[in-house]
Amino acid sequence: MIRRVAVVVAAFVVATSTMAAASPSMPVHSDAALPAQVAAGVGNATPNDSFTSIDCRAPGSCTAVGQFLDANGNHEAMTASMRNGVWGPPLPAVFAPSVASSSPNDAFTSVSCSAPGFCTAVGWFANTAGYQQAMMATQSGGTWAAATALTPASATPNDALVAVSCTGAGDCTAAGSEVRASGAPVAVTVQQVNGRWLAPIPVTLPSAVASASTTSGFTALSCVATSCVAAGWFVDTNGYHEAMTDTVGLPAQPVTFSTGPSPNPNDGLDAVSCAAVGSCTAVGWFLDAVGNQEAMAAQSRHGTFGAVHPATYALPGTIVAPGGEFTAVSCPTPGNCVAVGTLVTATGAAAMTESLTNGVWHPVVVAASLPGASATNDAFTAVSCSTIVDCTAVGHGEDATGNLDALSQTLRNGVWLSVVTATYATGVASPTPYDSFLAVSCVTSANCVAAGYFLDANGNTQAMTQRSSSPLVITGVPFANVTVGHPFIFHVGVAEVASCQWTLAPSGAPRGVHLSATGMLTGTATSTWSAVLHVTAHCGDQVATASVPLRAVSPRATTH
Q1: What is the per-residue pLDDT across 483-538, written as a single tens digit (0 to 9) for each?
Q2: Which residues lie below 8 Å from residue 313, measured CB to CB, with a gap of 6+?
Q3: Cα separation of 262 and 242, whole Å?
Q4: Measured between alpha carbons, how far is 34 from 162 in angstroms, rounded to an integer?
Q5: Quick check: 145 and 135 in contact, CB under 8 A?
Q6: Segment 190-207, tens digit of pLDDT
Q7: pLDDT at position 20
Q8: What is the pTM of this model?
């Protein structure tokens, strides 16, 4: 869920510092990537770990989830939290007695946070009988509770939750699939209300396109307020895979095409992002009329999805037998989104982006391959946008020596900057990398954290994160004159950051002038004066200060 910015009228020159060791420079991923260090005796000496999802609620406050190889060679689900810019150790999921297998095969696939320290992670685990069950785990005040198992509908479950979206602490919706008593996997959603998980809701589809026992699955979910939209796939009455969207609580609908789909579809949706109730964009792939796979997007307005938009290219001749797929999308406001993924070009697979601006899609932008690369094996896997012109896309790319590097690209003020690769401290990473970012979360245009995996110096796969940061900008009304004897109220804020703690330095502040912790400057001048107010904003682990001139004048002076 994208955080909205307080009303901005003017900006002041500020000085910014960081309480933790994060770089204030503007380039994306300016910090060295950090391996996730599982505690000794818990993690394996030869790790095979990865982060798959991350959510940040403030600068320096994030939660990442994934899985790690434990000391016994089993995969366990894990969470890791950053507080004040410092990552804590990864923590394995915990279960009540007699719930999980003593030989786990578990993973968290998705995380969503409503505030720092209040998150929900979902995924799957091996139960005591060795079958795969879906699970949910909730963090409150920075502490994780034992995972909750989704009650299976089958005696031999093979269930998973793959997406979660939270609109408040204890109010989340998750999506995935579960095996029903018939033995077929069916797309389901499950809601958490006031901290209590309800029974899963299986998808319903029109009888004209799918039977009651059809196979289906949800792959993505996005919630705004009390409205959630899930995206995924189902097997139609002819046995073909079709893409579908589902406003939770209503029947699901197949995506529709104006022209160009295959009569024998093999389609699916990978991601969905909702900027407001009834305004969502889902992305994925479809088979075109000649059997090639193409990237596609479907946009809803007023709650109804329109016909599919196939990815468009400025120079169609450069695309060879389209193998396109959009894997992620981020929509900061209604009708404004960025979709990312991969496509087939004359030289191989390339990372790509396509932007929706005011409801109009623009041609695909192909990211440049890494310097010296003769062939490409590039893809964007995730994207996060803080505004309609500021986004970060992450993924991987093949370098000049044929190795795979984690990479990112930033959209700054509407212009895509150069692709950059992940950096590591000396001696940490393998000289022959096989790395990738799988997720990214941005709280401002240049304050992002990416998560994924990398090959370490010993040739093992470790989970890792990498952070970018930049100075914060304090904003507010253009303070000039206030009138003696009349109450005044102004609001100050930090661009793109919704929640900061504010303080006013007593030196230089006239009597009767107050600044609330939420940024409301109030007072009543009892005499004329001229002052410079020194305000400070604490936003996560970053601190911004500003000097604000303010003058109290007599009522007569304001009439001239």
Answers
A1: 999 999 888 888 888 778 999 998 878 888 999 999 999 999 999 999 888 999 99
A2: 319, 363, 364
A3: 11
A4: 25
A5: no
A6: 999 999 999 999 999 988
A7: 32
A8: 0.89
Give Cβ neighbours of residue 376 (< 8 Å, ≥ 6 apart). 345, 347, 348, 349, 350, 369, 397, 398
474-559 falls under which CATH superfamily?
A: Immunoglobulins (2.60.40.10)
Cα separation, 308 vs 258, whole angstroms: 7
**CA-closest candidate to residue 226, choices 322, 300, 303:** 303
- Alpha-carbon distances, residue 256 vs 137, 337, 413 (angstroms): 36, 20, 33
- β partners of residue 348: 345, 376
Spatial contact of 251 and 205, defined as CB atoms under 8 Å apart = yes
Q: Which pair of structure tokens corresponds to residue 91?
A: 């923590």
Amino acid at 282: A
Tokens 């803080």: give the residue. Answer: 386
Q: Which residue from 2, 22, 46, 24 is spatially nearest to 470, judged by alpha carbons?
A: 24
User: Which backbone phi and psi does 291 adopt, to 5 degrees?
Assistant: 90, 10
The dihedral region occupied by 7, where left means phi > 0, alpha psi between -120 and 50, and beta the remainder, is: beta
**Tokens, residue 306:** 């329109």
Instruction: Give the CA count within 13 Å in the CB-facing half-sphere of 408.
Output: 31
Longest Cα pair distance anywhere in the chain, in angstroms?
84
CA distance 53 to 328: 12
Low-confidence spans in the chain with pLDDT less than 50: 1-29, 560
Q: Does an H or E element contain 264, and which?
A: none
CA angle 311, 315, 321 (to 5 degrees): 60
Q: How far apart are CA 71 and CA 76, in angstroms?
A: 10
In this structure, are residues 505 and 513 in contact, taking their beta carbons and an 8 Å threshold? no
- 554-560, long-range: CB < 8 A, 24+ apart: 554/483, 554/484, 554/528, 555/483, 555/484, 555/485, 555/486, 557/481, 558/481, 558/483
